[in-house]
Batch of 2 targets.
Target 1
Amino acid sequence: MSVTDELLANNRAYAAQFSGPLPLPPAEQVAVVACMDARIDVYRVLGLQEGEAHVIRNAGGVVTEDEIRSLAISQRLLGTREIILIHHTDCGMLTFTDDDFKRSIQQDVGVKPAWAAEAFGDLEEDVRQSVARIVGNPFLPVKDSVRGFVFDVATGELTEVQL
Amino acid sequence: MSVTDELLANNRAYAAQFSGPLPLPPAEQVAVVACMDARIDVYRVLGLQEGEAHVIRNAGGVVTEDEIRSLAISQRLLGTREIILIHHTDCGMLTFTDDDFKRSIQQDVGVKPAWAAEAFGDLEEDVRQSVARIVGNPFLPVKDSVRGFVFDVATGELTEVQL
């Protein structure tokens, strides 16, 4: 049995005790942008209930064009007004460079990605960079509360990054 | 008090009962790509524990360049071998068109986004499109198990999309 099949069996247990549906717009009007890291269960880390916040995640928790797209839809069509950015300690993005990663792909398949891998060497600097990409973007209308944090995978604590 | 501050207070309670750290590579070697919708608590929907799976999320749960980037890092550097795609009923992406959304931004701020908003009119078709973008991409080495699902926000159930 694949892991996917095991997780589908879990879903049947989840659905058996499910009560819904909740409304589409996030009740707390918040959007979270976090790293995809398996150790960050965003709902539990922030004490979120289902239906309260949009959760956007990718490798690093960085802000690229696709996060701008998601945040523009979140703010303009679904009414969110605060943004929480979460990077974390022991992140995979700290362990390689864009150049090396892309060269390894080129050596493997013959084609080098035209995109940036978005690796970074300093967590707090990259949180500030992610905030800066949001603040500087013309498509996001609500920028009063854009705050960045580092999640400590050893303690479970969020520490705010001073901008 | 902002919602962000309330969620930070929740985090202090979470950290107080936290035990870590777990290893960096996802224990179940799975990556999930799901919609950012607030009602989808991916860990609970799939019965995932912290540390088991990468979780990638955006507006729609679609596969754009940034999801390819995240999946390439997930597979090539952190060893994931299965991909689970999750779209859902009552999705905001079913309620608008790219043209209208981008025109409204242009009317608001004078600049039209150069990116696609990735709205869609048919859930199952868009799940198949997301799978196709993964299967057709040269940078992802492991494509044996790429399966797509629709999450029903009324029942909590995942239904597999036939490819």
Target 2
Amino acid sequence: MTTSTNSEAGNKLICTVDVVLLSLSEGQLRVLLLKREREPFAGAWALPGGYVHIGEDQGCEDAAQRVLRQKAGLESPYLEQLASFSGPARDPRGWSVSVAYFALVPHPEEALPGQQWLPVDRLPQLPFDHGSIVATAVERVRSKSQYSSLPVHLCPEPFTISQLHAVYETLLGEPINTVSFRRKLDELAILEPVVGEKRTEGAHRPAQLYRVRAEFRQRLRLVGRGLNR
Amino acid sequence: MTTSTNSEAGNKLICTVDVVLLSLSEGQLRVLLLKREREPFAGAWALPGGYVHIGEDQGCEDAAQRVLRQKAGLESPYLEQLASFSGPARDPRGWSVSVAYFALVPHPEEALPGQQWLPVDRLPQLPFDHGSIVATAVERVRSKSQYSSLPVHLCPEPFTISQLHAVYETLLGEPINTVSFRRKLDELAILEPVVGEKRTEGAHRPAQLYRVRAEFRQRLRLVGRGLNR
């Protein structure tokens, strides 16, 4: 063990990552919380996170993907850096910097033991500054959803255009004109039809099913104007 | 000195901040580079930056403001977090995470010894990953300039609307319709007239001078649609 150049007498610097993993279920944006097994805050529900492992991680994003793999069983979902949160008081273990990420996934069939998906608008008080990290992520996701492909990552594939439209409306919290929405989707050019697959919705004729083109699974696509303009 | 929890045998974790300080001069967006006094890369031109001081700094933003004060003589300019850059290879001293910020100031009268302001589009190769940090900052600033008050911080006060219009056009690299620009400025509501002060520009009648309202010196204001839409 060697000393960190940032450390000073009696204090230490720690570097962690935290991940705001979001999904959509029952018309609500939800965040994954895990029951903490260790101190500090053992037993509390908190964001998946952990120390950067400098012998193993190639960067903080790599650490975030490792945390999702190890703690949530997820392999390479859509992930984006959110912001860093830092200071002497946010973690009782020392002066800490946490590089926070957000990730989006279709809602899983069921939560594993020690996991729960809570609506982002009705969270209890969270340990550390996780409440503030979640609020920042939700604001970022809602704002980016207005002019990007971001919400497709919440939609289980394959999906119809109507299903994707409903996901955008839920995120933006307002109705989106259908014609304008289809035009923006064309502009985004992120979808491909699943050949031969259609789904019957209500009394309508069967609707074409789509999935996200492979090159846009990890890469965001933007439109010039907001989806609802 | 205590060990950092992130440290492993023979390795250490370091945490720094770097600041991309931008200004506009001779029609070009420029970044401040300082001649490095110490290793690594002593003598090279690099971004102002430094270690987080955990006994002193209240967070990484606080560290960035300290760096600007100590290394560039600047007191609280407009500053925003850009992103974190991390990994085992970006700094020869160890596995490092640098929380990067960008700041905007009116171009100073002259550069101090050991400083230079270089056009962002014609930079030499920079040490660490500073080239990539600058590129990320420039992209962010140009993109945010389309729908926010960000560029006002590049304009020496007091200024005329024509001068501010020219700053926006230089940043966006395209002409902006004057009528639409004035309407967006009204929507932003960030300016106040400097009472009794006017400036004569060319053959025109004297133009009113403005400054940024105090509450928007540190806070960004957004418009719903891009300035040029």
